[in-house]
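the two lines:
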Amino acid sequence: MSYIVPIGPYHPALEEPIHAKLYTEGEIIKDAEVFVGYNHRGIEKIATERNAIQTLVLVERVCGICSHSHALTYAMCVEQINDIAVPKRGEYIRVITAELERLHSHLLWLGVACHIIGHDSMFMHIWDERELVMDLLERMTGNRVNYAMVTIGGARRDIDDDLRRDLLAACDKLKAPMDRIVDIALNDKTIAMRTKGVGVLKREDAIRIGAIGPHARASGVNVDVRRDSPYSSYDDFEFDVPVVESGDVFARVVVRALECYESIKIIRQALENLPATPINNGNKLVKIKQGVAVCRHEAPRGQLTHMVVGNGGFNNHRLSVHVPSYKNTPTVPFMLRDNAVADAGLIIASIDPCFSCLDR
Amino acid sequence: MQEYKRIDITRDQVVPIAEKMRKAGVGLVMIHGFLNTEGQMDVSWDYAVEPVIESYHVVGETVLPSIGEIYDCAATWPERELNELFGVTFEGLDLSQRLFLPEDMLETQGKGQIMVVPLSELRARNIREEE
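prediction for all of em together
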């Protein structure tokens, strides 16, 4: 029997609103369509009436999980148009915040994935460890969500010697729980049975549709903006880009789990070599010169792109924000095909979607 | 600092450039659009020719060829978005579904209003509708 099964936009299996229409034969999904746009807030339009400092605050509200990524990418655009050099210490602090954000985002997703497959003890264990990262972010920035660490031309808050020592100690402290989490994620039977061979995205499909970030890397596409187009001193650090070929939900678990180690590696290098320069250029409000800039940042979910157009005034002439979920959501129908309806929620969640980000 | 290279082209060059980039394995970062200070539509196809972004701009055209056949959803989603926000028409693009804006807004206010009409006027329109 053929059925059309609607999921969402508001559904217990979804963390955020998306509407999916599943065309099924019995229990098996034969085709699917996805619809977005349930969280559109007109942020790009509002930005046309905001100056650069106000826009930093605004773009952090695009997403609660990757708020620093938005502020960083926007600042990079304004710095590119106005040719502003960022002091090295400011760049390193931006990197430390970005990698802590990646850590908490990946741990959040790993926890949610475990919750969806019914492994709630693992979900609570992972989120417990995530609290250590959240505490570090709160200690460093004063906030658990919108960190406000970026200003045009650098960072807003410094890392003093006490905090630096504590952050380095936390890197050591994170190692044992991360080993436990990765061991369970890679070897637990429940996780393997619910994720291996489920929601496969073939490498050629990932390339053709333009998948990015950990989602693409789990399908064997070796892309990472931090390495391919370095910014904010990322070329000062040694790190690996984990790539897995199988393209299933399990591969996405593996890639994100391994990326947590790389983030810790980068944070440690940045803290050990923190340059003794100022952190910013005076935190001044600047006019955005006439011109266009497009900058990219490897946010936790993949490549984040901002375009800023300046007209010589204080406000943005145009701000355009395109998030990783913009590129990854169109891959969902391809992943759903020939899978069971019961796995649809897990497959949609496996791209680590952020529809709040996507809709802006 | 990342490098951004602007290259101005004509609408006839859009598809050949996309085909060349696709063949070379270059990713389409995004298709962007804005009204420039002279009020002309400026659409750009941004490709990641690592580590540089090569940005191919067509200025002053509101009917453009779609590259959806070449870059699939990586192109069709931004093309649909530009149609909703600015009213740019991409030839051959399937516009049977909305993308971001609510259906009632598209019906009552029409496509291409959001980024073109000043915010103050949009606010005034909403107030009038509420009254």
